[in-house]
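pinning this so it doesn't scroll away 📌
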Amino acid sequence: MRTVKEISNITGISVRTLHYYDGIGLLKPTDKSEAGYRLYDDKALEQLQQILFFREFDIPLKEIKAVMENPALDRNHILKMQREMLLTKIKRMEHLVASIDDILKGDNKMDFAIFNKIEMDEMFQAMTEHMPEEMKQKAIDEFGGIEKWHEHYIQAVSGDDMQRRYRKMLEWFGGKENYLAAVKNPISKEVVASYQKRMDGILEKLAGKRECSVDSFEVKELIGEYGFVMKQLYQLQDESGMMLSLAKTYRREEVKKATDEKYGNGVAQFFMQAIEAFYK
């Protein structure tokens, strides 16, 4: 067991910071001495190391806490996630260094594309790795081979329309590195199904409140819970943009019809108004 002072000396983290981590429940001491001093074992030291890895990316402490407490993520999963994030950051730095070298050589191409070629290749690879085999084979057959499919993907992602969409998505995720990390480390199908079940339950309750004002406490409480689940599911830093985009989909005739058939007449309009009232 190590004391707070010893942990501070090993890691360079101040005693005050360790006390704060304990206070917010991010890193609890393993035990306390008879005198009431905090004590940490090797497992706690490993958890602190994982926290510090996340802090390298300026991820808010509350987001780190949510990841560390997620029952679907074990130690190896978190380490693999952090490794991918570090590799992405290294490649990003290499790209920036190369751009500066081009400027110094007088060969500035003024490329303001959101994703560079390496990152787009990585996104394609992540997409194909996590896609169901049946769907992947269908795409390969449609494009006449995986190379042709890859070329089409790069061309589509590089288009102005997709670039505009990505800019909006990066706002939701809190930056490119967060978005790329989410793309490369998608949540398992089992966890997604669990989140979907939870969202369906929220919407069922919300549909039962359609006679209430969208500004009422009970409606706002349910929308707040809905937004929180969406934020966790899609690993967002700010869910408001996605929720407002979701509200707009209820205006589409096919979505409105399907929603009203499932939850009751007029519910699609109610969902839209409730979400917009909460986030606007």
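📌 and the second one:
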Amino acid sequence: MNYATIKKHDIANGPGVRVSLFVSGCNHHCPGCFNEAAWDFNYGQPFTDDTIQEILDALAPDYIKGLTFLGGEPLEFVNQRALLPLAERMKARFPEKTLWCYTGYDYEKEIKCDMIRKWPVTKELFRHIDVLVDGRFEIDKLDLKLRFRGSSNQRIIDIPKTLEAGEIVLWEDTGSFY
């Protein structure tokens, strides 16, 4: 896997100050995408053990609230395989910090009914994800007033509560960053 960039002080992609990893590679090609360069799986730099360590080090300060995966598309199969070891190490070292993931895939149709059934890595990765922002960006549903998403069709899903309930439970935005 390659990655486009690491933002070590991101406040746009989840609550609080976060570390965000923008992976490379996306097959959605949503019109109006803010990160078209990251569609290319070869864009950016190779994701290595040193990259994982850099991210873990960036997560260490108490004021960092968590890690966010974006893209490109984190849930492309090749990206999932590379992200799982990072997610495992992050949650082992920082269990109090949250892991957010942005995807163009629909949770019920594409993740739960397809990916989780055919790829064990997906099921494992979702054991570590706290919040999933799902759905492709749709330019005709762009709404700049939305918090943590670009278009109104996208949902912010509380994954542990969803798994427990067996149905979609949306993340509750308390409006607090701390």
